Amino acid sequence: MSAIVPRRPDPDELLARVREQERAAARGKLTIFFGAAPGVGKTYTMLEAARIELMDQKRDVVVGIVETHGRYDTGALLIGLELLPRRKIEHRGIGVEEFDLDAALKRRPGLILIDELAHTNAPGSRHVKRWQDVEDLLATGVDVFTTLNVQHLDSLNDVVAQITGILVRETVPDSVFENAHEVRVVDLPVAELLDRLREGKVYLSHQAERAAQNFFKEGNLIALRELALRSTAERVDAQMRGYKALHGIDKTWHTGERVLVCVSPSPHSGRLLRAARRMAASLHADMIAAYVETPAALRLGAGDRERLAEHMRLAEQLGGEAVTIRGENAAEETVRFARKRNVTKIVLGKPTHPRWRDLLKQPFLDEVVRRSGEIDVYVISGSDVAVGRTAAAKGTRPGRKDAASGYVAGLVVVVVAALLAGFAFGRSQLTDVVMVFLLGIVFVSLRLGYGPALFAAVVSVVSFDFFFVPPYYSFAVADFRHIVTFVVMFVVAGVISHLTKRIRDQADSARDRERRTASLYAISRELAVAPTLDALLNVAASHVRDVFSGAVAVLLPGERDALKVTFADAGVMGGDEKELGVAEWVWAHQRPAGIGTDTLPSARALFVPLKGSRGRVGILALVPNADAGALRDPENRQLLDTFAGIVGSAIERAQFAEEARKARLRAETEQLRNSLLSSVSHDLRTPLAVVTGAAATLLDKSAPQDPGERRELLETIHDEGQRLNRLVRNLLEMTRLDAGALRVNKELQPIEEVIGAALNRTEDRLRGREVRTRVPSDLPLVPLDAVLIEQVLINLLENATKYTPAATPIDVAAVGRDGFIEVEVADRGPGVPPEEAERIFEKFYRAREGTGGVGLGLTICRGIVSAHGGRIWVQSRPEGGASFRFVLPLDGASVPDANASDKEHAA
């Protein structure tokens, strides 16, 4: 007896688990105290566990937020524990106390207690849900104790609503529950929980009466208790399977019953599924229906594929899980999958094929039994007259005409091979003749399939005997050695046919996998770079349309979660209330419906839910162009479900990006508002104070009578008034730019006149400075808005006077380039550091404080120049100072990029 060699752990699985362990080591550990309903003692048990951690383990324990609901026993357990102050938020005139995430992150304890994981935070909090706060804490390495009721699990939300008649609004994604380090079940018999409710230990007396008539009905509590225990058992089962995979354990551990039924296109699989379901029900076990897709299965006819799809749907209707497995050896893949899922019983149908086929290939049943080991194998009869008639009506043997033509073509190939061998080698070189026949068999195997190849092998042996072996034209054999030749020739031909068929099947399978992989890679790659939601939907629709040959529509939720058509091909969802009703059903139940399904099959389209990590995000509708039967094919449905998952994740990423953009915009708006208030309040207050002071001095009874002093005060009022005027003007211009209300009225103007007008308007500010201008007289007329470009020059000139010493000169120049005009305003001040060359054009940014202004002048310059199709920039001068330049295009010209313009100017 040969010893059983244990299977080595899969290296890829080990590597994935090592990486997962590394990630888990960097995160905090989440412990969930899990219960069936309020009042079972989750918070009390959590506090007791925290005190043990504090006393015995000497850990740093902090209470982030715990709701005692007025229970004395629970409140007493808080004595001696550090309480984190709560954050107070004003919401609609009501003060609300919430968990302070920022304080917790700053305190960073070893363990923090956070009650009610499914709680929704008040508006104004960092996150919408408390479980998101917990995720932030875990990411920083802080361990968390929390509480959760079963009705708050997202996947059980509709089940709980069906049982209790109450839709729970606050839910937690299942991934949070599944990824928890530990789940501790806090269980209490229903009778004791109802006693606690009547005693007022769960709710106050008037609330308890109302709860007992609604949520806390005895039947509801029993069902919720079972859901909680089952959810925990499923989690433990997943942990056990993970442990077995990690340690390379193949054997099935009989910790619970699980039934695997093998499904095929056979018409008897329906009866097999029902028998397996009865077995699973009697054992209170889960049922899995598995179909192994081998390379040979790719040649199934349309009738077989449709029947297989019906069997897979039947398995789901019976409450089982339908799984498609791909592999070379059906028996090996079946047993491997059974061990992976810890299956205890495998259900097979009795073989119905002729006995002689067992001589050519080991039967599937025998191989499963031999490999099953400790797994029980049940063989159930599949004979059913009614089923056989149904299969006959559907046509169990499609393509007979094609098969007959294949055999005729095989016969023709053998005849050609015999003629070729006879003319080329005659009857003297029998070895070469045999090679020619074998070559013909290889050709038939490659082109016509396994059956015609075997037929060609038989005809080749007969032809070889009849035409080439003496006595000729007779089937008699004079030399016994030729008998061996015939046998060897037939065996070799059979082996060649089988191997060729296998290679063809593998090639077809590889091509099919490559097609699916290529389509998935293509859609994933293009969705990843789609810049907007509209572009993303166009990419998704294009790929779904190409792969599944149909029209596509995508429906996304709008206000109040109501679906609206966001993208649709022509003729899809064109105001059809019936189709929209199907989409609403899919949105509510999160299951496919429509054509090709058993739910609302009369619909024109197949509706598939789009899901992301946070749950549902939309609906994908597909209207097939021709054959709707393709949508029943398990492979196509699986591929469509994969497409839907990818598209759903991409839409969710786009929504995340939009939320992040809005959050960033709100933050920037708040920053701009603060900067504006800070700058404007200072820059308005200063000139107003000067104007008010000077005016008060003039109005005072003791005002100076000297005309020179009075004129000086009046000039001060005038100058500060002008300063206020410039400030208000800049604010108004910036408002117009932000609102997109700036209109550019271009006319052909000489640039020298605009420069002269700007110099005249800033004459007072430039008094005492040398202003040097270099403007050639032969410059072409420029299409511009003279008022706006004059404002640009005024801002640049005022900027130069503000940031440079009083005695330094200012240079103003204009020069004609190839297709544009370049204007320069240069000074001899301190210059602009390279790292600030872009920032100085931002709103409210000032290179140095104490220079006056609010930091809008250069921003307005950029906005005006950009509205003209030009560009403005700054660079330091070699001899010191800053050079501000802007370019304006002539008609039909384009502005050069920064590098090209700099190089040309340097030249």
- Summed up, the helix count is 28
Major sheet summary line: 6 strands, parallel
Number of strands: 25
Order of neighbouring strands in the sheet with most strands: 3-2-6-7-1-8
Report the radius of gyration as a whole number of Å. Answer: 41 Å
List unreliable stretches of 5+ residues. 1-6, 383-399, 899-907
**Structural class by SSE content:** alpha/beta
Mean pLDDT: 79
Helix content: 40-55%
Q: Give the DSSP E fraction (strand runs of 2 or more residues).
A: 15-25%
Roughly how many Å apart are the termini?
91 Å
Task: Sum up the overall morphology in one term.
Answer: flat
Defining traits:
single chain; 907 residues; alpha/beta; five-stranded parallel β-sheet; 28 helices; 25 strands; 15% strand; flat; disordered C terminus
Please give a structural write-up:
The chain is an alpha/beta fold. 52% of the residues lie in helices and 15% in strands. It has 28 helices and 25 strands. The strands form six sheets. It has a six-stranded parallel sheet with strand order 3-2-6-7-1-8, sandwiched between helices. A five-stranded parallel sheet has the order 11-10-9-12-13, with helices on both faces. Strand 4 (87-91) and strand 5 form a beta hairpin. The termini are far apart.
